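Troubleshooting: if your tokenizer reports a length mismatch, compare your output against this known-good record of 601 residues.
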Amino acid sequence: MPLHPIVARVTDRIRARSEGPRATYLERMAQAVSSGPVRAHLSCGNQAHAYAAMGPDKAALVLAKAPHLGIVTSYNDMLSAHQPFERFPDLIRKAATKAGVTVQVAGGVPAMCDGVTQGQPGMELSLFSRDVIALAAGVAMSHNCFDAALYLGVCDKIVPGLIMAAATFGHVPAVFVPAGPMTSGIPNDEKSRVRNAYAEGRASREELMAAEMASYHGPGTCTFYGTANTNQMLMEVMGLHLPGASFVNPGTPLRDALTEAAVERAAAITALGNDFRPAGEILDGRAYVNGIVGLMATGGSTNLVLHLPAMARASGVILDLQDFADLSEAVPLMAKVYPNGLADVNHFHAAGGLQFLIGELLDAGLLHPDAKTVAGDGLAAYCQEPVLTDKGLRWRDGPKTSLNDRIVRPAAGPFAAHGGLKLLTGNLGRGVIKVSAVAPDRHIIEAPVRIFHSQESVKAAFRAGEFTTDTVVVVRFQGPQANGMPELHSLTPTLSVLQDRGLKVALVTDGRMSGASGKVPAAIHVAPEAAAGGPLARLRDGDIVRLDAVAGTLAALVPDLDSRQPVVADLATNEHGIGRELFAAFRRNVGAADTGAAVVL
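Known-good structure output:
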């Protein structure tokens, strides 16, 4: 199929916008590649330090004739999704020996769990942890010993941070190795019901704890379609996973076989072989457009609207929010996975999953079919699914039809004609809204505002019974400069209850909502943020605000907004405690939300 005209136009626009930075980036990568295998340039003393603990592999490392792979791991057992990585280094070493290559753990990166820090002070470090991860992975790769890298990461900031590092070391091939989702727990609608009941005081804390523990119950990614699982979709659609690797459960023979195959593939694509695939060549404009298309088709996490521009900039590609909005108009919503539906990612995978979806998008001309991937040239291989046979791991054609059209549908008969992400502009700034789970009669909300400077104050007002009429809840001073831009996910039950009571409510914030946000209209990532003197700092209680997701506007319907003096909030309480003092330099130097809220790039 010819490329869809909007996809072609957006790609051309990105290419033109990125011409200078991309050319500079590619020149730097070419210079690094032309220097030859990296270990040849290390002194004998450098190499002796690097190989001192490598035992029987020392001789092969000194000869430098076989590829040497580096592992960058985000293992810890605080994250259920990353706990399986504990055994991956040993598995990878055995696979490397079998493949005739050597491997070392190059280094580790931090990985915090947003599920643990939701609504807590630690969440104010969450977004910044992405840049810390990029820095830590850069330190790991700075030893300059490796012919290819295996990046072990899954969750919210970890994959974007690792991509930023992989792009920075773009002369080195990179294969991303996932751990897979946990098995399904209690139904997502039951979990949501208990959360809402607790918010209204109709369920006890013991009942809430039982529901949460039954939902998040074992090793693997949380099974809703939040940021972590959106990351996994991205890595596959962008060609950095092996085909079909994203949603295979941990601890299974197929999961282990895919990890071993990732080692073999990483060894095959180094500069020492005849299929050299450096990460910088894979991470081009086509890859990022394909990633955005996948985001829209699956109704993925709004957090990727922050992460993708930061990731892309690391490889000399400049994305704009308009790119997301235009692609959302072209791409149909083909999946319904919680919080956009009742199914979880295991159900999505069983219904045909990414292999069916990628095939449909290719047939509709919505993906670049010629994109370079770790598996080969073009995305056709990603229509295949991995299976274990008596001859080992093999790939076969994936499903050509949906196995459950309540979960995934063809491009010609989708759940919605558009991807569900809208750019909002107006006199309050620029932001985005995800409407894939919002009822059409709530796409336009016009109401007086109530202004808050923390999510706790919103919940206190709710408990006091102060919300009795239609309201636009404005939570400002939640941007990256103000307090690190924590997710405001803990407001979801509160606002959902108000909506269920028949009120028209919306959230407007310069902060973030989680990939688990859902049916309440929320204008998020509004920039410039209030702490930078943005328009949200000029709003007053009672002002009428119109959020129009149909027209793509966000406006205060007051005549004197521009002439008002912006409010200056006391942000002293955001500056210390739970490590926040360590990130003062990040808050001072962070970029705006609409360019990725990055510090290091």
